[in-house]
Amino acid sequence: MNKKDLQDRLRRIEGQVRGIQRMVDEDKYCIDILTQVNSAAAALKAVGMGLLDGHVRHCVKESIEQGSGEEKIEELLAAVARFNGR
Amino acid sequence: MNKKDLQDRLRRIEGQVRGIQRMVDEDKYCIDILTQVNSAAAALKAVGMGLLDGHVRHCVKESIEQGSGEEKIEELLAAVARFNGR
Amino acid sequence: MNKKDLQDRLRRIEGQVRGIQRMVDEDKYCIDILTQVNSAAAALKAVGMGLLDGHVRHCVKESIEQGSGEEKIEELLAAVARFNGR
Amino acid sequence: MNKKDLQDRLRRIEGQVRGIQRMVDEDKYCIDILTQVNSAAAALKAVGMGLLDGHVRHCVKESIEQGSGEEKIEELLAAVARFNGR
């Protein structure tokens, strides 16, 4: 997931969130709104997974290669735990 | 969670997503971006929970009282399963 | 999901957890153990979804029909929120 | 999380799952059973997080130090994605 891909996904998510606001405004059926909310949340999770991916492949890998991976590994594991909703 | 509260939360989430785009643009540190992504995803989940709450208290309850709850119950359980990420 | 189905699933999960203990004992590769842990956790989530399903279709529905659904609805929504990992 | 700690946790989870079977047998209240199911699922997730932790600190780190981290990194990211319920 490169920078352009990330930006495209985030712009689409921003549009989804605006669409949800419109649905609330127009008193759309709550289950239909919920479906859109879940879809935007899943899209955000995918962006998060893409960021984690790039982080491991670059920052963490380089730090370990330079013999200073400990801090990056701690940080990564904390991020994975948070990402997983704790 | 009333309509105004929902709109306020959604507007805040929209702002968060725009903020994340700015962070990506400015090449901010990926773990910091990830923290914001997680925060926006959690805020969306809270909106989803609020919608589910209103749905059960109103639509599902009324349908059951009118003796036609079956369809609403099916729909609710499907929404809970999706909400839970399956 | 009836009582027998629930018991079968729970017995299978118990067996999975015992299998994971054996894998740990035998120093199996951690990613393979993690795969089994995820599989057991997903099976437990499916049992939870089955319980929630039966609860809504019976307890919650009956309470609402008898005009005393408020407490059951509160309890249900709390359970859904917890089920969803908050 | 060392081997003994992992085994202790897994034995406790096995006991929890057996306790849930007893609750089902004795027709305990479904919300109470669900609470135990959620608790066992959370305990399994914690074991999974412990395994992931050990994996990154040892296997992944060593592979990268030996210049052959690519495969381990792929595997790790796939495990994190699955762990996160996709």
SSE map:
4 copies of one chain form a homotetramer.
Chain A: H1 3-25, H2 30-65, H3 70-83
Helix pairs in contact in A: 1-2, 2-3
Describe what you observe in this structure.
4 copies of one chain form a homotetramer. Chain A is an all-alpha fold and 86 residues long. Chain A is 85% helix and 0% strand. Chain A contains 3 helices and no strands. In chain A, helix 1 runs antiparallel to helix 2 (30-65) and helix 2 runs antiparallel to helix 3 (70-83). The two termini of chain A are 25 Å apart. The mean pLDDT of chain A is 91. Chains in contact: A-B, A-D, B-C, C-D. At the B-C interface, helix 2 and helix 3 of B face helix 2 and helix 3 of C.
In the predicted model, the low-confidence regions of chain A spanning at least 5 consecutive residues are none
Order of helices and strands of chain A: HHH
Largest sheet of chain A, in brief, is: none
User: What is the mean predicted local confidence, pLDDT of chain A?
Assistant: 91
Strand-pairing-aware structural class of chain A: mainly alpha
Strand content of chain A: under 5%
Molecular shape of chain A: elongated
What's the β-strand tally of chain A? 0
The quaternary organization reads as: homotetramer
Count of runs of 4 or more consecutive helical residues of chain A: 3
* Integer-rounded radius of gyration of chain A: 17 Å
Q: Largest protein interface? A: A-B, 38 and 39 residues
Query: What is the share of helical residues of chain A?
Result: over 70%
| N-to-C span of chain A | 25 Å
